[in-house]
Amino acid sequence: MKDLFSRSVQAVIIFLLIAGVLALALGGYLNFFSTGLNTVLVSTQSWISVRFVAIQEFITLPRDATTLRQENARLQEEVSRLQAQVVQYQRQVAETQSLAALVNFSRSNPENVYTAASVIGRDPSPFLHYIIIDKGSADGIRRGMPVVTDQGLVGRVDAVISNAARVQLITDPGSAVNVRIEEADRDVVLVGSVSGDLSLDLVAQDVTLEAGDLLLTSGLGGSYPPDLIVGQILNVRKRDSDIFQQATVQSVVDFAALKIVLIVTDFRPVNISPLIPVP
Amino acid sequence: MKNLVAFPLLALVFILQSAVASRIPLLSGAVDLPLLLLVAWALQERVQAAWTWAIVAAMMASFFSALPPVAYFVGYLSVVFLARFIQRQVWQLPILAMFTVSFLGTLWMHAVSFASLSFFGSPISPADILSLITMPTLFLNFLLAIPVHSLMRDLAIWVFPSEELV
């Protein structure tokens, strides 16, 4: 009974203390104390929090950096792969465009039979302008066959093996093509040079040459079929003191960028050398 | 027997020359990889069978190129002769020898090419050749002379590991 009484007294005392503290707090008498306590608590919590975050970052950041580096490497690899794919697609598009142009050319010139070939190399000697193509005698290619693109005349087959052939370009210094000046309706000879420039040589002074005149193969000599586009006259050098006039020619074909060519396989060149009188 | 390595190596070099080097011209000139390879090989002290390489190279060049074969045979054999001669004189300065033979060899090869083309009727101006082909080729050959010499020195050591002479 005594114990029960003393516990009740303790509870009442505690209640009164809490009520008193609450009353003091609500009355604003504990502001100084609570402010000081809060300051200490907040400061302590801030200090601990800052240290904890720092430690957490210290522990977790390297892992994130590693992950980021791996991700970066993976993305760079992906970018490289995609860039390679883009280059490959661009090459395929360019090749398809070239082939489409060649197909259009062969459709618009149905009088001839063509075989397409890729350019796989050039003559090792810088003195000569020859290309090597990936079609040979096994594909019906024979020596002397003309080679064209959709733009115009390229040259003619010079040597053939079973699966490749060598083509002499019209820019080769040893090349001479009989051409017709469309506007003047005159036949002249187009020659190449070491630098790859084309020119008309030994043109009589009475022939009217003008920049922009179109040149077509004449078919004379039997080396090339007639009416293949060769180029345009770029400029004319004509002096009264000279016996002949000269003209430089701009080819319609970009010989530096040749990738695919067409061989005219149904054309048989005529060898007229036995008919030329030997002095 | 070890000289059989010349066949695949020279074939590869001619393919590179035709498919790559000839498509990277400077004016109208291009680096002459087969010539550099022959010169570098002939300058190796432990190599004595450079003549074989010159003949194989001339045969392959005649297969690839429209230049008269005689030009390659005369040119390459002369260059190997020059390289062997220079190698005996300045054997302690292989790089100097490489530059000297590359320079003289390029000039000689172009002179032989010019002579053979002129003989067979191609109208070529010597002035054009000098300015458009020979000078750029000399420059490009000088650029690649040291790397090619280093590669061929390593190849010679690999093919002839001891001091044996073949």
Keywords:
heterodimer, A: 279 residues, alpha+beta, Thrombin, subunit H, 6-stranded antiparallel β-barrel, 2 helices, rod-shaped, B: 166 residues, mainly alpha, Arp2/3 complex 21 kDa subunit ARPC3, 6 helices, 0% strand, globular
Descriptive overview:
- Chain A is an alpha+beta fold.
- Chain A has a domain at 114-268: Rod shape-determining protein MreC, domain 1 (Thrombin, subunit H), CATH 2.40.10.340.
- Helix content of chain A is 37%, strand content 27%.
- Chain A contains two helices and twelve strands.
- In chain A, the strands form two sheets. A six-stranded antiparallel barrel of chain A has the order 1-2-5-4-3-12. In chain A, strands 6-7-8-11-10-9 form a six-stranded antiparallel barrel.
- Chain B is mainly α and 166 residues long.
- Chain B has one domain: Orthogonal Bundle (Arp2/3 complex 21 kDa subunit ARPC3).
- Chain B is 72% helix and 0% strand.
- Chain B is built from six helices and no strands.
- Chain B has helices spanning 6-19, 33-42, 50-64, 69-89, 94-119, 126-159.
- In chain B, helix 1 (6-19) runs parallel beside helix 3 (50-64), helix 4 (69-89) runs antiparallel to helix 5 (94-119) and helix 5 (94-119) crosses helix 6.
- The longest helix of chain B has 34 residues, at 126-159.
- The model of chain B has no long low-confidence stretch (mean pLDDT 87).
- Chain A binds chain B through residues 120-128, 130, 132, 158-159, 166, 168, 173-174, 191, 193-196, and chain B through 14-15, 17-19, 21-23, 25, 27-30, 32, 34, 61, 64-67, 110, 113-114, 117, 120-125, 128-129, 132-133, 137.
